[in-house]
Amino acid sequence: MSSPTDGASRTFDAALIAARTITDVFPADTRYRLLTNDFEPFANTLKTKAEVQEALAKFRLGSKIRTADEIVSRFNRLGNERDIFWLSDFQQSTFGKTLQPDSSRRFHLVPFQITAKSNIYIDTAFLDNPFAIGGEQNTLSLRLVNDGDADRTQLNVRLVVDGLQVGTTTTDIPANSEKEVSFVLNNNQAGIHQAVISFGDTPITFDNEFYLSLNFANRIKIVQITEQNSSSVVKKIYANNQLFDLINRVGSNIDYSQLAQADLIVLNELERLDQSLLAVLSDFMEAGGTVLLIPAANPDVASYQSLLPSIMVSKQEKLLELTKPDSKNPFFNNVFQEQPSQMAMPLVRNSITWGDDRQAILKQQDDLPYLSLFQQQGRLYVMGGPMQSTHGTFLNHALVVPVMYRIAAFSRRSDKQLYQLLSQNLLSLSADSLNDNQLITLKGETEVTPAQRNVNKQVLIDLAGLDLEPGHYQATIQNDTLSTIAFNMTKSESIMKSLSRNELTDFFGSSADVYDLDSSSSSEIAEVLKENYQGVSLWKYALILSILSVLIEVMLLRFWK
């Protein structure tokens, strides 16, 4: 309702004028119940004309969306008023599809038709490589939508990161269509960055900015558990201290508190998994953690089966070549600069097997899996054999680093969501070290401490009922910032089509009054309201007719002979 309408700068302003005029039409002792999409406590009691007009003077545009059914249900809980004046743009995309009208109520619908019939908005934004680490190239893509009947040419789109413009592009968007544009990000991105995508689109401007949070802050926490004589390949691969926080532990000396804080636990050639470790691993994966199982050459398969019941001892004796990786597998997105079909593949020999897996990340030439992913609440990666020269050349192959990096990248449990829609009622944040009595505060345009609860090392934040504006907010505990969240309007607000008069009648029933307001003039609105609600006033005409009749009678008595 920030869009323009005939006779007023904004539809919202025209609605305020109409609301004040309604209170002028009725007798001075009339009481009103004033309800907005915020469902504020102000509507809980009846108000005088003066109280309503004072409240209207303080109203501001808000971002809360309600369907018609939600609004009617709210009225039903608040009171039993018979007459309801409903002032709205009656936006089709947010109004809902069902309504149970109440025959005891009479609806007076006051639609405000906006003059703008088209709008450009961002449908979605995403990173082409959301798990990029180690200087991998990344691209920010966004999908623009032209919601209108006119082509849009030379639309300039800008990307600003931390207050500095880092990219700009110009695009054309045909009528009633969408267009994807992209920005290449710096390979050395690190830390948390506040990004804003913006473009010029008038007269509807509320959705011309789209907020993003680019979170490349935390190193990936990895705990490797090994036997005394296990291979050191994993330790070498994850030796980059800028990317990984690697902790090495021997199976006989495990600090279980460190496991709960990890993103990835690597079980490297453990011959046997004891029950205490298995219990911790079960809780870890239920909380969303990732485990990589690299088997020993001669493992205790019975203990492995507690992680994956289908694991069996492999009877493979000869080395077999791996098949070419499937570049269409999401695991390998942005990994290969050339087709993997031109790559010489390593030889491997499995010490365990787990049956057929058509979705395996890596397979042998005999079609048995060498690396598979099993995903429920968390992730379990299972490798077919140890990283020893006796079991193949995978440990020395060029493929081992990108595969191990990708497993680590997918295990990252820090908050990677680019943005949150204001229509979403729940927000989940990682909180491994948060005490039960500590509360997260959102600081941005406003500062709020929402209702929240801890579930499996995650904090679920209830956003319902909060008056948040689009923009960047810091999730903080006291003086520490956990993350930056970007909030945006839901895209349904940007679809401008309104319900027609016939559609409103069908929606509310034939007993509903639909007002036609072609002006924002309070005097003209008053006349329309009086005519629609009170009917055509005939007493003036009756008085004139009575006086005219008396005059005629006097004239007849005086002059008729």
TrEMBL record:
Keywords: Membrane, Transmembrane, Transmembrane helix. It comes from the Bacteria. The chain crosses the membrane at residues 538-560. InterPro entries: Ig-like_fold (IPR013783). This is CARDB domain-containing protein.
